[in-house]
């Protein structure tokens, strides 16, 4: 098992994201994961920087830690040729430490280019075509492609790493899990659902399972739950809602009646490592072996110290017991 740290790009400046990635490496995390958004989720979030610039800065500022997008939609806001080039460059700059996480996207980020928002079945078709294009371009040489939705014309990525970066495909159901098995190298999820990994394995997938683990550290449990509510209440709505709302104002309305108590039930909150391990165990028991820990608490440096002193050992022990 590998233990990662989720960089919360929607509430942190680009410079702070790089600083926290360096601190995560020093704390002993195996990888950092960062979303690829144009908009933040909520109006009280303050940032949403361009992920590929941030990844380059992290690659230049760290030596060991892995990097991953969690996740990039490679077919609306971007053309897959651009994603193929960006990922290849990031893999080179990081010395092979990069994993490309991809998914079918959210309206929140993809509607901004005015191409509409297709139904999920069409987005899955587009995701599969995008992955075929990315794989083609990573194979070297010039390529063209004409699919039902996407086209590539006489294109070549010149700067390629010795080995292509792994691709982790986000799945919320068996259809996307099948795409992950056929065209990806790993599965990505935000829920401790063993059925997703079962669908992935039954479709022929053999790679690791990535998942985001919701935690909120603070010296006081109430403060942790209040911070989780401020930062992550959008996450309680589930993927079907998260994928469809277009702007932060809509997420504000959809979460108007969510309370800190609701977040306390979903997150490991407060200073007690047992509360955090209880949440981590749900994902480990579901079979996920690449766990990106979210800290929705108010003090990132306090969380890093907590991880080093009280959480890292028990989480690693949990991993060894699987």
What key phrases describe this protein's structure?
eight-stranded parallel barrel, 13 helices, alpha/beta, 45% helix, TIM Barrel, single chain, two-stranded antiparallel sheet, oxidoreductase, Luciferase-like_dom, Luciferase-like_sf, 16% strand
Explain how this protein is built.
There is one protein chain. With 322 residues, this protein is of the alpha/beta class. The protein has a single domain (2-320), classed as Alpha-Beta Barrel (TIM Barrel). The chain has 13 helices and 11 strands. It has helices at residues 14-27, 51-61, 80-93, 107-110, 120-138, 174-183, 194-202, 221-232, 239-242, 248-254, 260-266, 273-285, 300-320, and strands at residues 2-7, 31-34, 66-69, 98-102, 143-146, 151-155, 167-170, 186-189, 209-216, 268-269, 290-295. The protein has an 8-stranded parallel beta barrel with strand order 1-2-3-4-7-8-9-11, surrounded by 8 helices. Strand 3, helix 3 and strand 4 (98-102) form a beta-alpha-beta unit. It is globular. Keywords: Oxidoreductase. Residues 12-289 form the Luciferase-like domain. This is LLM class F420-dependent oxidoreductase.
């Amino acid at each position: 098992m590998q233990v990662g740290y989720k960089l919360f790009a929607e509430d942190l400046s680009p410079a702070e994201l790089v600083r926290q990635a360096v601190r995560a490496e020093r704390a002993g995390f195996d990888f950092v994961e960062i979303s690829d958004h144009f908009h933040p989720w909520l109006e009280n979030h303050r940032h949403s920087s361009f992920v590929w610039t941030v990844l380059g800065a992290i690659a230049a500022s760290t030596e060991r830690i892995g990097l991953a997008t969690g996740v990039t939609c490679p077919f609306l806001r971007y053309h897959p040729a651009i994603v193929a080039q960006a990922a290849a460059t990031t893999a080179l700059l990081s010395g092979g430490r990069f994993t490309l996480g991809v998914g079918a996207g959210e309206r929140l980020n993809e509607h901004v280019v005015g191409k509409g928002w297709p139904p999920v079945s069409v987005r899955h078709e587009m995701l599969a075509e995008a992955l075929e294009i990315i794989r083609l371009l990573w194979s070297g040489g010039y390529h063209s492609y004409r699919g039902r939705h996407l086209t590539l014309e006489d294109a070549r990525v010149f700067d390629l790493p010795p080995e292509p970066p792994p691709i982790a495909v986000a799945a919320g159901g068996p259809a996307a899990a099948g795409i992950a098995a056929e065209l990806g190298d790993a599965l990505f999820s935000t829920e401790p659902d063993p059925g997703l990994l079962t669908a992935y394995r039954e479709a022929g997938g053999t790679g690791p399972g990535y998942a985001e683990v919701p935690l909120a550290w603070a010296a006081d449990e109430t403060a942790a739950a209040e911070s989780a509510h401020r930062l992550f209440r959008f996450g309680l709505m589930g993927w079907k809602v998260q994928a469809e709302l277009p702007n932060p104002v809509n997420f504000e309305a959809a979460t108007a009646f969510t309370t800190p108590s609701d977040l306390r039930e979903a997150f490991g909150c407060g200073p007690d490592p047992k509360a955090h391990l209880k949440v981590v165990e749900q994902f480990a028991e579901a079979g996920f072996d690449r766990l990106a820990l979210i800290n929705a608490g108010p003090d990132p440096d306090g969380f890093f110290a907590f991880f080093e002193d009280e959480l890292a050992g028990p989480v690693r022990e949990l991993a060894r017991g699987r």
